[in-house]
Design goal:
This protein is an alpha+beta fold and 423 residues long. 41% of the residues lie in helices and 27% in strands. It is built from nine helices and 18 strands.
Length: 423
């Protein structure tokens, strides 16, 4: 259960931060965000923001999404029965598409609608004076709402606030903003994890940390912060050299350590102790890498670790071309769940660090120039800049759907592969 909760929290945080990037820059650049949803499935809460966005919380804690104006159909089909609400100027302010609204307005059967340019709605309504159905055309307010079947109230999408009406560079910034936000999240997560675990590993130092007071190093009197300057007569300048020198020692033979403690040199003879703490069991003396605890190091760790993770991901992507494609290099939802469950058992600091690593992965994966991903959209924006005009909408839809289909198929294959690895 702890693993499931950890997975859902991490997944939701990653997606919500990603979508918030799209939301924030879209609004700043004049593109209407009709809905910002946290979770999926049926709506359980909604709030109308002053900027026209409807914020919703949905019942399934599986990420979230934003709905940009102009990327989905908003006109009402002929024959649709709706209920209309008007303002004092007899202009429509709300179109309720539910069959049984709690506060019904004027019953109306749609004949023709234009909620993009003309902002009009034509249809039939019952006239009490004529005692018959009369065809009428009403003006629709620019900021009118449509109530969907589940009760979600979202703004209509007039042409001037649509994504398609924005310049290419505004579209590009909006599309790039999601991955950019994930990079920011990664920096924060890694820095936070450093504060939570008490510092940043410094593998370039020969200072060490005592991780168990019952182990031989602690019993011999070695302290956290002491520097191991030699092992069995071999000079050691960093933790990797210390680790390698200790591992060369026969398991039961005492190890000679030369240690600097508060400026003084001391020599110790330490007999390793067998421990099952690491996998199949090893002979250990109870030391680990030194942690830098200053605020500057812990803050900068967010940037350095984000960079290191990004480089590792690019190297993995490069290996697809040099070493061949392999599903073992990719993790799907099941694989991420498995990793999350392990991290949850290791503590909150490790879990936060995992969130940072996954956030970097999500950012880079989304920037790949594949239709359906943000990188594919950015590529289309650049093509629009070169051509001085956007692609035809029907062509863009076909390319995006094709990319989405390929991604969906890849997710299925990766998920099956991850499940097989569990057994």
């Amino acid at each position: 259960m702890k693993g499931i909760i950890a997975f859902l929290i991490i997944f939701t945080v990653l997606v919500v931060f990603h979508e918030f990037g799209h939301y924030f820059f879209a609004r700043k650049l004049g593109i209407l965000v009709r809905e910002f949803a946290i979770g999926m499935g049926p709506k359980i809460f909604q709030h109308h923001g002053k900027n026209g966005t409807t914020f919703t919380i949905r019942i399934l804690p599986l990420g979230g999404y934003v709905r940009l104006a102009g990327l989905e159909e908003t006109d009402l089909t002929a024959g649709k029965n709706v209920f209309l609400t008007f303002n004092n100027q007899n202009i429509i302010t709300k179109i309720d598409t539910r069959e049984n609204p709690s506060h019904p307005g004027l019953p109306f059967t749609v004949r023709k609608s234009d909620l993009t340019d003309q902002l009009t709605l034509t249809g039939d309504s019952f006239d009490n004076k004529a005692n018959d159905l009369i065809t009428k055309t009403f003006n629709v307010d620019h900021d009118a709402f449509i109530v969907e079947n589940d009760g979600t109230e979202i703004r209509i999408a007039p042409r001037d606030v649509q994504y398609s009406s924005a310049s290419w560079w505004k579209k590009l910034i909006t599309n790039f903003a999601g991955p950019f936000n994930n990079i920011l999240l990664a920096i924060v997560a890694f820095s936070l994890s450093a504060f939570m675990v008490g510092g940043v590993q410094d593998t370039n130092s020969n200072k060490i940390t005592i991780f168990d007071q019952t182990m031989p190093a602690a019993k011999a009197g070695i302290k956290t912060g002491d520097a191991v300057i030699a092992v069995n007569g071999t000079k050691t300048n960093n933790y990797e050299e210390i680790y390698d020198a200790i591992n060369k020692n026969p398991s039961k033979k005492p190890i000679k350590l030369k240690v600097k403690h508060e400026g003084r040199i001391k020599n110790y003879m330490i007999r390793p102790k067998y421990s099952k703490a690491e996998g199949k069991g090893r002979y250990l003396i109870g030391i680990s890498v030194w942690y830098k605890k200053d605020l500057r190091s812990q803050f900068l760790y967010g940037f350095t670790q984000t960079y290191d993770n990004a480089i590792a991901i690019f190297q993995t992507l490069g290996s697809f071309f040099t070493g061949g494609f392999s599903l073992n290099k990719i993790a799907g939802p099941v694989g991420i769940y498995s990793i999350s469950a392990q991290a949850a058992d290791s503590g909150l600091g490790v879990l936060v660090s995992l969130c940072g690593a996954l956030s970097v992965s999500l950012a880079i994966a989304n920037l790949l120039p594949i239709p359906g991903l943000d990188g594919g959209k950015v590529l289309l924006n650049l093509i629009e800049a070169i051509r001085k005009k956007p692609l035809k909408q029907e062509h863009e839809v076909v390319v995006t759907l094709a990319g989405a289909l390929l991604l969906f198929m890849l997710i299925i294959v990766v998920t099956i592969h991850d499940i097989m690895k569990l057994f």
